[in-house]
């Protein structure tokens, strides 16, 4: 089956914040537009107070960059913008520059389905300053949302502990694209299917769904509705049993299940969408078993999330399949990931890379300078630690110390020679050309499952997870501290002079 890869099939270059364009114009005016720079996209805290996040959205990033160009209508729109005095916001020369602009950046990124942690780059962009700047907003828009939803889906699947999770949040999603991106990210995070038919077409995700309460209500009796549905779909009957009375609904489902069996077919199961899910699922299991339907599945829905699923499991609810919608596709309890995009190095006139750091009174907001990458160390397929390091530095195989970027007192000694390792940032674009072989969504989903399996279960706890070690290699830590102190001294001297 051929899956559509060009998601939008047109440029979305104006899907950006206006200040990206004003900065681009100012760079051009200052003669800095082609100056080479490096930016990193990363997040500072896990969502949902969790212990891991799951990277998603790279396919959309690739699609965006492949179509990065300013069309005639884009330039016409920018040309008609006026300042308060009636003069054009952008000079004709700048618009001509944009007209001839061709994407030429290097992009390295963490592959989709990779477990990721705060402060480590998910995407690194290197290229002309104007292009790097113009990529900030769209990349954040894409990665923030899909990583958030993939992480939420992974947490829900951790709670489900191997039971299938169906995603059907389309009707509650944040608009059309929010629904499509959410279905894709949820599938990466472990959901087995979606109710979103367009997502099924675009991405090849299995689709699922049976009927709603309106189907039942359109007939004179619930039993008639079940019989009619069984006539239409004898191979895939899952009956929604809580329209009027859940216990009676289960009885009616059993009656129709017996009729199906006489015809050589089997009822797949029932769905409960309201009420006390623990109580009714236990009752349903007993009734189905006693009636000779031990294989019939019990599907539960009704504003579920990982916390409710965990609670239902502790109550020994007899639920085989979980249907999750609103709280998954909207990331109900945390609506944004909060990833940021920061300049980390720029080339001077001599062609030398100059590391850059943003200083803040909040240590959480001090970025990591230089051209850096991330290595993950494994011991017998289990992830041990992530090290953020300067690419030009040689790593001592006999031993390194990684230092927490927020709390320098938290350190861990690693012996790289005793571990297998994986460099997490992989080349995606080189001088604007796509060099990465894009995996299928199934392969991405498999990677996500393997990555989650590589984490110790303590890191996957839904409440108070154990902290996974992520640290700066010593030389990078010292560089960062040197730049911070230098910046502070400069500011002090400046204040004294004033």
From TrEMBL:
The UniProt record lists the EC number as 6.3.4.21
Q: How is it modified after translation?
A: Transiently phosphorylated on a His residue during the reaction cycle. Phosphorylation strongly increases the affinity for substrates and increases the rate of nicotinate D-ribonucleotide production. Dephosphorylation regenerates the low-affinity form of the enzyme, leading to product release.
Alphabetized Pfam families for the sequence? NAPRTase, NAPRTase_C, NAPRTase_N
Which leading EC class covers this enzyme?
Answer: ligase
For this protein, the record's InterPro entries field holds: Aldolase_TIM (IPR013785), N/Namide_PRibTrfase (IPR041525), NAPRTase_C (IPR041619), NAPRTase_N (IPR040727), Nic_PRibTrfase-Fam (IPR007229), Nic_PRibTrfase_pncB (IPR006405), Nicotinate_pribotase-like_C (IPR036068)
All residue ranges annotated as the Nicotinate phosphoribosyltransferase C-terminal domain in the record: 373-479
Identify the keywords attached in UniProt to this record, alphabetized. Answer: Glycosyltransferase, Ligase, Phosphoprotein, Pyridine nucleotide biosynthesis, Transferase
Record keyword Magnesium present: no
**Source organism's superkingdom?**
Bacteria
Domain spans labelled Nicotinate phosphoribosyltransferase N-terminal: 14-144
Domain Nicotinate/nicotinamide phosphoribosyltransferase, chain residue ranges per copy = 167-348
GO molecular function per UniProt? glycosyltransferase activity
- Catalysed conversion reaction: 5-phospho-alpha-D-ribose 1-diphosphate + nicotinate + ATP + H2O = nicotinate beta-D-ribonucleotide + ADP + phosphate + diphosphate
| Pathway the protein takes part in | Cofactor biosynthesis; NAD(+) biosynthesis; nicotinate D-ribonucleotide from nicotinate: step 1/1
Instruction: List the PANTHER family.
Output: NICOTINATE PHOSPHORIBOSYLTRANSFERASE
According to its UniProt entry, what is the function of this protein?
Catalyzes the first step in the biosynthesis of NAD from nicotinic acid, the ATP-dependent synthesis of beta-nicotinate D-ribonucleotide from nicotinate and 5-phospho-D-ribose 1-phosphate.
Give the UniProt family note: Belongs to the NAPRTase family.
What is the protein's name according to its record? Answer: Nicotinate phosphoribosyltransferase
- Upper lineage ranks? Bacteria, Pseudomonadati, Bacteroidota, Cytophagia, Cytophagales
